[in-house]
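Protein Record: Sequence and Backbone Structure Tokens
======================================================
Scope: a single protein chain, as residues and as a discrete description of its fold.
Tokens: labelled as protein backbone structure tokens, with as many entries as the chain has residues.
Position: the record begins directly beneath this header, with no further notes in between.
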Amino acid sequence: MPNTATKTAHDWNDAELARRIADGDKAAFEQMMRRHNRALYRTARSILKDDAEAEDALQEAYLLAFRNMGKYRGESSLSTWLTRIVVNEAIARSRKSNRRAEVIQLAGDGESPGALEHAMAHETDESNTGQPERAAMRADARRLLEQKIDELPAAFRTVFVLRALEEMSVEETAACLGIPDATVRTRFFRARSMLRESLSREFDYALEGAFGFDGDRCDRIVARTLARLAEQ
């Protein structure tokens, strides 16, 4: 039998973390938060569309989870259990803020699921840190993508974040949000389609202004050409 006394917090599995947290172990609680922070923050952010609100919602959800950890029975993964708490907290905050009450429709859409496309490709690493212009362009691209994700209808936005950003399976996403698998597939397919269309429009607008010529450049070329002509 392995010597569990030498195990560190990083080695604890979900069941051990939950047991320790239920016993009031703050180190286990900290490890749980660090392990799930990014995914849960993104989930809250996808509903609230506000960084500060998402942080507050996540903190409240963590406190609620800490107080109720003794009720966790391991019937689902700890991440799924935590995500449900975060979703409920974020929805409650959204309603209190007089935002749209239909943040997540728990009933199915009644639409036939489209063909599920592959999950969003991972962002490539910025291996060339010595190229500030390229890094700035990538940062602009990320901001544009985040803006367009925020503009997705609420019912599709959270599904997209869980499936594409956090790479949850259809089944995991359905369990977290309490909706049928088919609804997850439908919403993810439609979210990707809407995102592509929105980004395509931005690309078309950018093409119209590419290699701009009006203004100073036009005047400069005309003036220089006329000057050359006058020299002949």
Notes: The chain has two domains: 4-96, 132-216.
